[in-house]
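dumping this here so i dont lose it
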């Protein structure tokens, strides 16, 4: 996943091709097309629904990865759509196919299911026994479509159950990680606020890098808009109004603003005050 630069508010995004969840979901999609071509009536609505569910599983992963640049909420939503398409739709269709055709559904702890899952953990499974004539062998995730093209209906459907289960499990773990990242790091709105705050601090930092005398946060150059100090410049805490720490600016360091007329001072102070308030908006992420 590429990391945006420190000066960009964009969140980490992309790189989905390297995710194991994407690789398994893509293999499931390709193999589902082969399975439906072999075993499901071409005019059956179930055929279209199975292929669409498999496609949704893989395409929503890539779409969510791209959406992550500006919305962790969208990323999580799309990841969950991918998981639900596989786990709550496609998985049920494969089970229904087996039961409706009087075929055995492997128990998850059966020797066959364990062996199949172990093969699917690898793109190319190690230590494969020589294939027997006329008997298809699953060589790993990369060979799933080829295996489905030759296997019996029971063997093919159970292999797909194992692959779909694996993809759904990986997506569940991925969704949980995305939720943790959001909790710990926030979302796009917070990133925008943090980037803008850094830029404003860089445009006018306190003398010698002095932090706020009350809370230690960065200070910003401000101008008093009212009271006995109206028109006078000072360094005010960036956390205002939660913190009201200030640092006086010596008269010889003040901007030419202090020499303006009273009316000019008032107009400029109001403008600066409104600009400062734009940085005090709620930084919580609503997207």
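and the seq i came up w/
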């Amino acid at each position: 996943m590429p990391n945006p630069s420190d000066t960009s508010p964009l969140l980490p995004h992309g790189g989905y091709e390297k995710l194991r969840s994407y690789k398994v979901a893509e293999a499931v999609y390709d193999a589902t097309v082969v399975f439906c071509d072999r075993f499901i009536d071409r005019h059956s609505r179930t055929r279209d629904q199975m292929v669409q569910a498999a496609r949704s599983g893989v395409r929503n992963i890539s779409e969510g990865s791209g959406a992550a640049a500006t919305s962790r909420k969208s990323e999580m939503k799309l990841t969950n759509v991918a998981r639900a398409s596989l786990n709550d739709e496609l998985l049920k269709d494969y089970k229904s196919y087996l039961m409706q055709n009087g075929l055995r559904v492997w128990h998850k702890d059966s020797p066959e299911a364990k062996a199949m899952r172990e093969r699917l953990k690898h793109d190319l499974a190690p230590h494969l026994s020589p294939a027997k004539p006329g008997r298809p062998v699953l060589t790993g995730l990369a060979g799933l479509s080829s295996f489905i093209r030759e296997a019996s209906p029971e063997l093919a459907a159970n292999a797909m159950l194992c692959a779909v289960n694996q993809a759904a499990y990986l997506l569940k773990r991925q969704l949980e990680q995305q939720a943790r990242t959001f909790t710990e790091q926030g979302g796009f709105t917070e990133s925008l606020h943090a980037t803008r705050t850094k830029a404003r601090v860089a445009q006018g930092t306190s003398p010698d890098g002095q932090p706020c005398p009350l809370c230690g946060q960065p200070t910003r150059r401000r101008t008093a808009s009212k009271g006995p100090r109206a028109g006078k410049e000072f360094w005010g805490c960036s956390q205002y109004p939660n913190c009201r720490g200030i640092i006086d600016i010596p008269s010889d360091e003040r901007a030419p603003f202090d020499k303006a007329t009273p009316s000019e001072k008032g107009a400029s102070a109001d403008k600066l005050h409104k600009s400062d308030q734009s940085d005090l908006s709620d930084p919580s992420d609503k997207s």
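The radius of gyration is 30 Å.
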